Protein 1
Amino acid sequence: MTKIKVLLFCILSIHCFFAFTQNINVRIFSNVKVEEMEFVPSFGNYILIIDSSFEQKIGRKSKINIEKDKDSLTVKLNGELLRKAKRVEFLAQGLKAFFKIDIKTKKEKERRYDDNLIVLPYKDKQIMLINKVNIDNYIAGVVQSEAGGATDNVDFFKLQAICVRNYLYTNMNKHLNEGFNLCDDTHCQAYLSRANKPQVIQGAWNSKAEVIVDANGNIIETLFHANSGGMTVSAEDVWQKPVDYLQPVTDSFSIGMKDYRWEHFIKIRDWLNYFKGKGMNIKNDSIENALLTFSQQDGRKKDIMGIPLTTVRKDFGLKSTFFSVQKWGGEVKLDGRGYGHGVGLSQQGAINMCEQGYEYWQVVEFYYKGAKVVKREDIFNQLNN
Ligand SMILES: [Zn+2]
């Protein structure tokens, strides 16, 4: 190859590389009032860019402090005033750079995030922090924040990563009018740090570009709950709207897991009066008897004497709608199974499946009827940053 060809090849490779580096802007510390912050590179070097006009390379020994002063930001480097600014960006050099950020309040510990950070003035005395992060690094961070302690099984983390990617795909413009894609709170998906657990990182990166689609190829909403109690619920029974891939599944994998069983005791009088309040004639013996012997031993039901179980669950604060009733002295004992709404994937069942050796796509096909895992390289192309 001639020198020119080599050069051209390099330029094209770099171009292709950047074309596939898809970043997302996530507001961090979004539920906290941030008035100042300290940035320190933890690994790799950074370029500090102020108002697109000033650039300085910063390494691991540099400490940058930013706070708001009137409408602008005051930027200090190692304690010395550097500039006043409207926008500050920390641009990661290299693929693995990450930084430490401390917002100097007692309640919030310092956190570590991958890739880049943008700092902007916000309302009152506050500043806004936006992590401009590679999509798969973001996905790994969410998986670790939400389920990092659940198991060490890589397939389970792949499954979680794909669910996070599905959510991301359908919600990536949720905060666009505020100047970022997603927040780091449970309003979007909890994203409290970068991932540092190897199995979580492996799960996110080894499922790269994979999403779950329904039988028509549409990205699905990956609803999940803690434990199905042995049988999942159709979406229609909970939200009155049928969804093809959210149908009841007999789920032996949830049996015996952490939240499989629960008990709840209610005074007989309170239990019957509750239904009286719903217009039922509890003086009628057969109605009273039905309320005191209600059973779901043979499978889930939708209602108890016409009252939706979802309503009963909400009114008594029950772990699930999957319970049977029996008299227990002056009380009724609710013998319950499962935890959560019961629709879609049972997290504890999924962990059990993965630990038994099932692969992540088999778990997907088990809980979401007719759905499958596919690679969609194009899905985040609308993110142009
Ligand atoms: Zn949000």
Protein 2
Amino acid sequence: MAIHGIGMDVVDVARMKKILARDDRLFFRKKIFSPTEIKYCEQSVNSAERYSVRFAAKEACLKAIGDPSLPLNEIIVEKKKTGKPFLVFGGSIQKRVEGYHLHLTLSHTKNYACAVVVMEE
Ligand SMILES: CC(C)(COP(=O)(O)OP(=O)(O)OC[C@H]1O[C@@H](n2cnc3c(N)ncnc32)[C@H](O)[C@@H]1OP(=O)(O)O)[C@@H](O)C(=O)NCCC(=O)NCCS
């Protein structure tokens, strides 16, 4: 067991709120987030926080893997029954993470959203 990579990211919730407000045709949402993520965020009273923290998770994951060119929409945050979040990956990233275990933790306030990813081999 060894740490292959670690990544963290912080997102300004006010900035995300502005992007979401301009996204009336949902292009941004659909480009970056999965249908499950969109449903979870939209159902929340503080949806900008939820989108922000998921965006942070995707960016933190790029850092842990060490490749900023990977598509964000193929890094997906899902949740266990306990509420604990975990990452699942779309086709083009699957191979990059094969044999690794990725740990994710999230935290958000009305101002900032933060995510940390640890990639373990
Ligand atoms: C789970 C818990 C730690 C979240 O902490 P929080 O300060 O409320 O909220 P944060 O912004 O830091 O974290 C929220 C994120 O934690 C994650 N989370 C939720 N349940 C989790 C769990 N069981 N394990 C790990 N992560 C969890 C989620 O991803 C959530 O974000 P999301 O809903 O957008 O996906 C907290 O709600 C909790 O259950 N604490 C236990 C202690 C307690 O009940 N204290 C209250 C009395 S003092």
